[in-house]
Specification:
The chain has about 100 residues and is mainly β. It has one domain. The strands form three sheets. The chain has a four-stranded antiparallel beta sheet, with no helix packed on it. It has a three-stranded antiparallel beta sheet with strand order 7-8-9, with no helix packed on it. Strands 1-2 form a two-stranded antiparallel sheet. A hairpin with a 5-residue loop joins strand 7 and strand 8. The longest helix has 6 residues. The N and C termini lie far apart (about 30 Å). One of its GO terms (biological process) is mRNA 3'-end processing. Pfam families: WD40. InterPro entries: Pfs2-like (IPR045245), WD40/YVTN_repeat-like_dom_sf (IPR015943), WD40_repeat_dom_sf (IPR036322), WD40_rpt (IPR001680). Keywords: WD repeat.
């Protein structure tokens, strides 16, 4: 639970990132920056810095932000295609728009 798995094509192996306290239900990659966000049953959205992995193939990712605002499990996340905003949807029947900066 709480693990995000990704494939490193140069090293030809799977890596894992831990951070959530519940199952991860959604992941979205930022189209304009080296970041991604994840949403989980632990009621949080987390924003991750992917830069270290891309430049240095470091298996450790830096979590940049943990965002709380939902009252129920987060079921989906999605970055805006033009800027550093993303939205999250939850079982609490809300959709929230977040400004990354």
């Amino acid at each position: 639970e709480g693990v995000i798995k990704y494939w490193n094509p140069q090293m030809r192996q799977q890596k894992e990132i831990s951070g959530h306290d519940g199952p991860v239900r959604g992941v979205s990659f930022c189209p304009t920056d080296l970041k991604f966000c994840s949403g989980s049953d632990d009621v949080t959205v987390r924003v991750w810095d992917f830069e270290g992995v891309i430049k240095y193939w470091n298996p450790q990712m830096r979590q940049q932000k943990e965002i709380s605002g939902h009252d129920g499990p987060v079921r989906g996340v999605s970055f805006c295609p033009t800027d550093l905003k993303f939205c999250s949807g939850s079982d609490d029947v809300t959709v929230r728009v977040w400004d990354f900066e």
